[in-house]
Design the sequence.
């Protein structure tokens, strides 16, 4: 009986699943090696000051307007959506506590990171992808330089160092937006608004948000640069790299937010044990 | 640590490809390729589109890793070198990319200075002088230093890219389609610059090109590759290696078909063009400073707003 060559058979669903799994494992391996190489290059030699400052300006200063605008609106939206529920409970003055703790722990860092991923991450992937397609990355290697040190390290450092600043900006304008709407439009007393906020929001909450943002920044830079470096040929490849960079960054932000939230909550409860309830 | 090139015996070819195979996914672009380049030689790699010329050039410089086989620099397999040695030895190469590959975000000066700043702690004065010398060498003045690559014509970009590659004083120059997309006048200018580079320095050159005027003008030896898709199991990918005159007279119909027509159109080539003193190369040295010696070149460049 004549045997059918394996290659001529249509792949079964099991083969397809296997291919997807293998591709995923390969991608994770490539990304891990990419990240390790970046860390090694970061430790071997610092990037040139001018290159770093240029990246910091583009990534940090350039992102402030969009972070400010979205931050204000998020604060105001929280006030509008929360007001009715608190009004039913006759606890309107406590809305500031909820707005502010939500902002400093979750929404501020996630919002700043999302803006960074959308504005900077996809742009980085597109820029590096274009450099790859036009052989500029090969040209760097041909000139005896390491492209990861030249291109990735400054971007990583800029994201890593500046996202806490952007998070602080997002927190501040969000808090101001929530306060302005609550007190000027919804008529909540400003003194009690701040008093309840002060008693509810702790320094640990603020530090939690800032710590998470550092991880978000590092992840965004690495994911964007990785997809730029591994961009397929042509304009379509560059566009796809930019899109995937944003989508993957966003997924990474949410996943990191969840796991870091769990970890930090556990640490908090270990550091400040809750007394056992009498009930 | 001294470089591989310095350590190795001078008798070994400067670059040697030993049974190289390179695949991209399922597609084999280079198969069992054996090729060597001796010191001081200028080799032109020709062949149809897709036959693996540019990939071969990248393999020579270890910008790509072979799927099988060895790339040797002065007799030593590149695979035996650690990353640091490989990066150091790669500095002996200069590479002129097909699309110039100038860094968009940097101006002309920064582009040419890039390699100098990266590999050494040269003072800014030395870097500045070197950049201006290299630009002058390729017929460009210091006035274009502030321009971005997007503001340059194709010919100027090629020349800036050549200046960038020459800034590190390479021992081996690799040219990937140096005249593609250029008009005949600018093609002549680039050909002359390749000849000038070869004659002013002890440089070994490998030129990948479709342009037979370039082959005629610069090559000591012509190597023709056949696409892997057309090869039988035991066929060699290098189907011709010899002088341009031998290529024209080759009985192999594949070589004759590729070389014949253009050669008869341009001029009868009975001997190697370089040894005969090809007109395209004769006036390339000039005053030893510029690749622009004919007034026609200068006039054309001036008329087109380019530096000459």
Sequence:
């Amino acid at each position: 009986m004549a045997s059918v060559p394996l290659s001529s058979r249509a792949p079964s669903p099991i083969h397809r699943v296997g291919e997807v799994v293998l591709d995923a494992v390969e991608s994770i391996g490539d990304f891990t090696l990419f990240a390790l190489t970046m860390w090694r290059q970061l430790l071997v030699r610092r990037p040139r000051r001018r290159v770093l400052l240029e990246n910091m300006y583009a990534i940090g200063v350039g992102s402030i307007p969009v972070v400010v605008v979205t931050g204000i609106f998020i604060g105001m939206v929280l006030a509008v959506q929360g007001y009715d529920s608190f009004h039913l409970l006759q606890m309107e003055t406590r809305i500031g506590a909820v707005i502010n703790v939500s902002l400093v722990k979750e929404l501020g860092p996630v919002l700043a990171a999302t803006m960074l991923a959308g504005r900077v991450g996809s742009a980085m992937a597109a820029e590096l992808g274009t450099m790859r397609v036009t052989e500029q990355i090969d040209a760097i290697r041909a000139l005896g330089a390491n492209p990861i040190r030249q291109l990735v390290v400054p971007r990583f450092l800029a994201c890593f160092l500046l996202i806490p600043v952007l998070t602080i900006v997002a927190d501040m304008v969000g808090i101001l937006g929530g306060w302005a709407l609550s007190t000027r439009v919804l008529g909540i007393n400003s003194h009690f608004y701040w008093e309840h906020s002060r008693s509810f929001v702790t320094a640990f909450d603020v530090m939690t948000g800032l710590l998470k943002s550092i991880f978000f920044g590092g992840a965004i830079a690495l994911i964007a640069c990785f997809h730029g470096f591994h961009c397929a040929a042509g304009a379509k490849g560059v566009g796809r790299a930019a899109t995937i960079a944003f989508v993957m960054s966003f997924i990474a932000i949410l996943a990191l937010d969840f796991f870091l939230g769990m970890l930090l909550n556990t640490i908090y409860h270990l550091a400040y044990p809750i007394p056992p309830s009498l009930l | 640590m001294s470089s591989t090139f310095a350590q190795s015996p001078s008798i070994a070819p400067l670059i040697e490809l030993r049974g190289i195979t390179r695949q991209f996914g399922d597609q084999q672009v280079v198969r069992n390729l054996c090729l060597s380049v001796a010191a001081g030689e200028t080799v032109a790699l020709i062949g149809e589109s897709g036959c693996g010329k540019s990939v071969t050039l990248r393999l020579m410089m270890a910008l790509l890793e072979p799927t099988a086989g060895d790339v040797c620099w002065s007799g030593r397999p590149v695979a035996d070198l650690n990353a640091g040695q490989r990066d150091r030895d790669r500095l002996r190469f200069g590479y002129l990319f097909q699309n110039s590959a100038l860094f968009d975000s940097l101006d002309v000066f920064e582009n040419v200075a890039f390699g100098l700043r990266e590999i050494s702690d040269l003072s800014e004065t030395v870097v500045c002088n070197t950049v201006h010398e290299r630009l002058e060498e390729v017929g460009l003045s210091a006035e274009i230093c502030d321009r971005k690559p997007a503001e340059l014509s194709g010919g100027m970009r090629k020349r800036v890219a050549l200046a960038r590659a020459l800034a590190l004083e390479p021992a081996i120059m690799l040219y990937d389609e140096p005249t593609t997309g250029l008009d005949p006048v600018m093609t002549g200018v680039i050909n002359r610059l390749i000849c000038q580079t070869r004659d002013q320095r002890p440089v070994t050159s490998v030129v990948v090109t479709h342009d037979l005027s370039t082959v005629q003008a610069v090559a000591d030896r012509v190597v023709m590759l056949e696409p892997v898709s057309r090869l039988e199991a035991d066929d060699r990918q290098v189907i011709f290696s010899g002088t341009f005159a031998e290529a024209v007279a080759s009985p192999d119909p594949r070589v004759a078909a590729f070389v014949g027509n253009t050669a008869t159109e341009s001029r009868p080539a009975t001997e190697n063009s370089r040894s005969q003193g090809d007109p395209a190369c004769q006036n390339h040295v000039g005053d030893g400073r510029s690749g622009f010696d004919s007034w026609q070149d200068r006039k054309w460049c001036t008329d087109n707003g380019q530096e000459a």
User: Anything to note?
Assistant: Chain A has a mean pLDDT of 90.
